[in-house]
Amino acid sequence: MTDEEYMDLAIKEALKAEQLGEVPIGAVLVYENKVVARAYNLRETRQTTASHAEMYLIEEGNKLFNSWRLEGCTLYVTLEPCQMCAGAILQARIPRVVFGAYDPKAGCAGSIINIFEDQRFNHQVDLVGGVREEECSALLTDFFRRLRASRKGKK
């Protein structure tokens, strides 16, 4: 499968989050050309800071491989990772990250900073951004537009 096809699977995960009223962010973890884990955002449902799609995906990968290292995996996510998720990706030793939409307010894979290209870390990440960017961006834009309209209607 291609990066675009794997990102389509991450988009399907994001749609699951959206159905729960969550910010539509989804992710998939691929190892040896197979999807081994899927996750989506659950921060509003769980009311925990670390309930991002990437964090759940890393946890699932850790359980699957019985290791904190996720070497040989590619993480696909619909939104550019934040600083927390970027740090967890580095700690998990994930060698490749592919994301959809850029996040100008919290993105740490190029928008605000790029944690992944800091040579001082003992792990480097091959990064690809903007895959299915329009679809991933539209998911978020449409979600927040509906949310604002809903809140406005309740006032």
Automatic annotation (TrEMBL):
Cofactor(s), names only, from the UniProt record: Zn(2+)
Top EC class for this record: hydrolase
Active-site residues per Swiss-Prot or TrEMBL entry: 54
GO terms for MF: tRNA-specific adenosine-34 deaminase activity; zinc ion binding
Residues annotated as binding Zn(2+): 52, 82, 85
Superkingdom, natural source: Bacteria
Known EC number: 3.5.4.33
Alphabetized InterPro entries for the sequence: APOBEC/CMP_deaminase_Zn-bd, CMP_dCMP_dom, Cytidine_deaminase-like, MafB19-deam, tRNA_aden_deaminase
Annotated CMP/dCMP-type deaminase domain residues: 1-147
Enzymatic reactions: adenosine(34) in tRNA + H2O + H(+) = inosine(34) in tRNA + NH4(+)
PANTHER family: CYTOSINE DEAMINASE FAMILY MEMBER, TRNA-SPECIFIC ADENOSINE DEAMINASE
Name of the protein: tRNA-specific adenosine deaminase
Organism lineage string: Bacteria, Bacillati, Bacillota, Bacilli, Bacillales
